[in-house]
Amino acid sequence: MKVLIVEDDSAIAANLYDYLTSQGYDVDLATNGPAGLRFAVTQTLDAILLDLSLPGMDGLSLCRELREQAHRDTPVLMLTARDTLDDKLAGFDHGADDYLVKPFSLKEVGARLEALIKRYRGRVVARQLRFEDVRLDISTLTVLRSSRTLRLPPKCLHLLRILMQSPGRVLGREELETQVWGDTLPDSDTLRAHVYTLRRALTAHGEDDLIETVHGIGYRLVAPHARAS
Prior knowledge:
Blueprint: E1 2-6, H1 10-22, E2 26-30, H2 33-42, E3 47-51, H3 59-69, E4 76-80, H4 85-93, E5 98-101, H5 106-120, E6 128-131, E7 134-137, E8 142-145, E9 148-150, H6 154-165, E10 171-172, H7 173-181, H8 190-202, E11 211-214, E12 218-221
Parallel strand pairs: 1-2, 1-3, 3-4, 4-5
Antiparallel strand pairs: 6-7, 7-8, 8-9, 10-12, 11-12
Helix pairs in contact: 2-3, 6-7, 6-8
């Protein structure tokens, strides 16, 4: 699961980063509002830990931009020293999903984060992603389509996981390349080749093609009956 921390206090950010990575999360970190918003709208995230007092853009403004302008429903857990009822209500009014007052327990952060992600990813049961007749077991990295097991190269497996975490959403080429290859971006044909390999594995026995190419933009996972004409 991928989480973004937006926090300008280096000690708090480091504690959160170390704890969440120790719990198996893939963590990104932004130390100001504009950078946090940029991460939030260009990355595929499972949740955001958002401080309110940030340089460049405060957390309330960032959250509102995320909801109203970028139309992202990524769960947001606000972390702040402001503890009045009005402060909490303002956070919820701007689109936060939960609110935790500093100082906080790292274990409580982890518990609230896990609860938010479970609600957001309601289709994830027993560490499994499901879409149509495809199942991906996060723990064992086993992929099944109906009753057959798919043998996928590691990068294709990662690509499938990203697509299954956001079914129906168009994922841009740059976003997918960054998610799969990190800072070492591949040449222009590498992503296309991996999508072809993944598509061929998914449809090897004549099954419906679940990957739609959105020309000039990227790809999305979509049910055949919902495919754009």
